[in-house]
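Q: what sequence does this backbone want?
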């Protein structure tokens, strides 16, 4: 077929680009050699691939369904011919003029560059590197392999029409944006990230992170993909060639797989211990705690027996200093009680007329009343109507708004308070324990969400070091940003475990052993426990999200804790652990710090010796766990 030269212009062409029809199963992989092209049709640029048999013929156009419902003629008999998770789309508009497509012709595609969302380097068990293009509809095309090089030239040609920004979360992922910033703004409007003109997505997270996270998760994920990238980042390239092929003149660009780079070694077996069940033996005659570190180690290893939680939590959360005497603690309680009720009087004394002129306080009260009515209502302490526990929950949260008016109340804070109130059974003590807890996690609730973005980045760094194959799979399903872990990190797994398990998990995390980011290792432990279910199935983005969400109340806490500690010990025993991983674990601090790497290393060695001692005590038999 002859091309209309007025409507068609060839910008770039490269031969020897192989399309892989089944890149996830090495024993059934099919490759089709072909051409990759950048063309302009009626002035609109598109990226096209066609097999060698179709040389000189227009590629059939794949029509990507848009939000407004515009679509071409639907072919109800369309069979993509490859695994569903690589499917491009179910609605296809075929060229009505060209001759019938040969068998390999069904793989041809034409993607308008305005619909290109990302380019990603992926590696599967084949050991080959693939370039995967994803449309703005979230649909990855079949992976392409440049057997003869040429990706550098392709990317250079693409940058004539689009901007490619490397994601800091994943060095293999490059996000595509139009040169026109106005078009970028319009693309967000079409996604309807904003339900109204007066609030943005971050505000929706602040007001209702659960509904936002799980109500429109694909939009949230797209938001994070854009939000976590550095605006000033550019496309950096490093030469790389397939060692199985002869050297070529045109080098490959920097899509190298970012992994740990070293063998981690075996993962050690660890044991959990009994809970802390004695308190008085750790006090001197004046009531000071003689060995706080020993208490923390016992709590980390086994938690705290319920009868001691009320006292021990007040030390773990900073209400009482570890070196305070019994008399000093009595004075602290008296002073803190006075301070609490002074703050409580502030909001209690606000008249209805005054509150009508204070929209911020009125908003806080409304959010708190709504959340209190649905927080842990299955727990007897908060069940039923007119329950005094609900009144205490409301009053403590309102008083916290007076204590920290800049932050105020954000949904999720009621989840943090309810276990504290349940254990202390005291309004004042639960309030000051909440302030101590919020010192650890307050950044999770700040409007900028920088802390949440940073934690997702750190989680990605850890998972890449631990399990590159799992990361590649999540990447292939457009889930590499790990945003489905958002709720886990926001409120420290409160909705994932039973109420009683959360009491144990939180007191373990409050010890800050073996590192401040142990909650990220908890997340890694959960994800790795699900790798067989994820990789060995036909999950896509939506079903991955559904599967993770359905883990709620189905996880075994002790198994997760053992896995997290084993992961930590495996990582720290690696002598060539990358600095980025060391930073996440607190083993390396790039700037001056109060805690040296040597002190962290000694603490790690202590935990390792404890684990080894536990294994040795069982006469080298597999450890038994409670």
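A:
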């Amino acid at each position: 077929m002859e091309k209309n030269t007025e409507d068609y212009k060839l910008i770039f062409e490269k031969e020897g680009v192989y399309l892989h029809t089944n890149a996830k199963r090495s024993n059934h992989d099919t490759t089709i050699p072909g051409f990759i092209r950048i063309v302009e049709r009626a002035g609109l640029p598109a990226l096209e691939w066609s097999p060698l048999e179709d040389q000189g013929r227009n590629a059939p156009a794949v029509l990507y369904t848009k939000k407004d419902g515009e679509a071409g003629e639907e072919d109800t008999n369309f069979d993509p011919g490859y695994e569903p998770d690589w499917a491009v789309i179910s609605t296809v508009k075929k060229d009505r003029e060209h001759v019938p497509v040969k068998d390999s012709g069904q793989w041809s595609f034409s993607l308008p560059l305005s619909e290109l969302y990302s380019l990603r380097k992926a590696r599967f068990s084949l050991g080959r590197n693939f370039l995967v293009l994803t449309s703005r509809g979230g649909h990855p095309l079949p992976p392409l392999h440049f057997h003869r090089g040429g990706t550098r030239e392709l990317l250079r040609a693409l940058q004539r029409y689009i901007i490619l920004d490397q994601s800091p979360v994943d060095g293999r992922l490059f996000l595509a944006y139009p040169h026109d910033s106005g078009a970028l703004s319009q693309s967000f409007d079409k996604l309807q990230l904003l339900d109204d003109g007066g609030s943005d997505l971050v505000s929706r997270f602040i007001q209702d992170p659960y509904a936002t996270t799980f109500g429109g998760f694909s939009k949230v994920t797209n938001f994070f993909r854009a939000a976590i990238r550095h605006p000033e980042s550019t496309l950096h390239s490093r030469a790389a060639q397939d060692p199985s092929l002869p050297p070529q003149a045109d080098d490959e660009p920097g899509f190298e797989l970012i992994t740990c780079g070293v063998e981690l070694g075996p993962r050690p077996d660890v044991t959990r211990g009994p809970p802390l069940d004695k308190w008085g033996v750790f006090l001197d005659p004046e009531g000071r705690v003689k060995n706080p570190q020993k208490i923390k180690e016992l709590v980390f290893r086994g938690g705290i027996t319920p009868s001691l939680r009320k006292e021990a939590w007040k030390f773990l959360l900073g209400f009482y200093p570890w070196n305070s005497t019994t008399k000093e603690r009595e004075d602290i309680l008296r002073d803190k009680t006075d301070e609490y009720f002074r703050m409580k009087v502030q909001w209690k004394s606000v008249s209805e007329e005054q509150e009508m002129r204070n929209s911020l306080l009125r908003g806080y009260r409304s959010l708190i009343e709504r959340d209190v009515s649905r927080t842990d209502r299955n727990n007897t302490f908060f069940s039923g109507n007119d329950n005094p526990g609900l009144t205490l929950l409301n009053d403590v949260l309102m008083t916290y708004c007076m204590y920290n008016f800049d932050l105020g109340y954000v949904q999720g804070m009621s989840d943090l308070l309810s276990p504290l109130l349940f254990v202390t059974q005291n309004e004042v003590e639960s309030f000051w324990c909440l302030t101590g807890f919020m010192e650890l996690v307050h950044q999770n609730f700040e409007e900028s969400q920088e802390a949440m973005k940073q934690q997702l980045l750190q989680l990605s760094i850890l998972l890449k070091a631990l399990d590159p194959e799992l990361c590649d799979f999540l990447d292939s399903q457009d889930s590499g940003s790990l945003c489905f872990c958002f709720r886990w990190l926001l409120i420290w797994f409160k909705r994932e475990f039973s109420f009683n398990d959360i009491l144990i998990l939180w007191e373990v995390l409050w010890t800050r052993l073996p590192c401040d980011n142990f909650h990220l290792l908890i997340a890694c432990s959960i994800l790795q426990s699900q790798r067989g279910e994820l990789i060995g199935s036909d999950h896509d983005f939506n079903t991955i999200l559904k599967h993770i969400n359905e883990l709620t109340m189905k996880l075994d806490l002790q198994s997760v804790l053992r896995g997290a500690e084993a992961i930590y010990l495996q990582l720290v025993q690696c002598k060539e652990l990358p600095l980025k991983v060391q930073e996440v674990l607190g083993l390396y601090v790039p700037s001056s710090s109060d805690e040296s790497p040597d002190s962290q290393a000694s603490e790690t060695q202590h935990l390792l010796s404890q684990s080894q001692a536990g294994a040795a005590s069982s006469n080298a038999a597999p450890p038994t766990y409670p």
